[in-house]
Amino acid sequence: MAKLFLLRHAKSDWGMGLPDHDRPLNARGQAAAAQMGQWLAKDDTCPKLVICSTAQRTRETLAILTEAGGLSFDVLYEPALYGAGTETIRQIIVTDAGQYESVLLIGHNPGFHDMAFRSAKGGDSELIRRLGAKYPTCTLSILEFDAPCLEQADLESGRLLNFVRPKDLT
To answer: Where is coiled-coil annotated (predicted)?
Structure first.
């Protein structure tokens, strides 16, 4: 079964006079990324590949969660994830995920919220309700598909296995 992990970047700073692409994480975001890394380390189905937006806040999220969880991934930085909508995200998965069974994407809203919600056709109804309501920073959705790898998956027929927000980890 193929698994897709969709992680919105952790909370970032505003008003520093930087372009949006260059905004760093704030202290709250750094703490949330560390908590998410520790949570992922406990998951026995941790992804093997990370496809990460090139924005500063996504790269920092990845670095912190990797260190905090003692995790190791193959990493691909994908500029097209910055500001990507659902169709672009799907294209990136099909093109870049290759034969990987489980992949973590780190990117941005509204694309990640839309992708997760459109993909979640089954699973726990309460998790789907929470997913539909809001997709806060550093939120992770884990979706499972009836396929051996993501490039063969019907990305509109997933089961939502988990929906984890930073407030769920405190």
So the answer is: none
pLDDT (tens digit per residue) in 103-117: 999 999 999 999 999
* Cα distance from N-terminal residue to C-terminal residue, the chain: 30
How many Cα atoms occupy the beta-carbon half-sphere of 43 within 13 Å?
A: 20
Q: What is the Cα–Cα distance from 69 to 32, expressed in whole angstroms?
A: 12
Give the pair of three-digit tokens for residue 143. 């979706």
Collapse the DSSP code of 65 into the 3-class scheme (helix H, G, I; strand E, B; otherwise coil) and give the result: helix
- pLDDT given for residue 14 in this prediction: 83
Classify domain 2-9+22-168 at the CATH superfamily level: Phosphoglycerate mutase-like (3.40.50.1240)
Give CA–CA dist 16/14, Å, rounded: 6
Phi, psi for residue 165 in degrees, rounded to 5: -105, 160
List helix spans (H) across 43-104.
56-69, 86-96
Q: Answer yes or no: is pLDDT of 15 > 90.
A: no
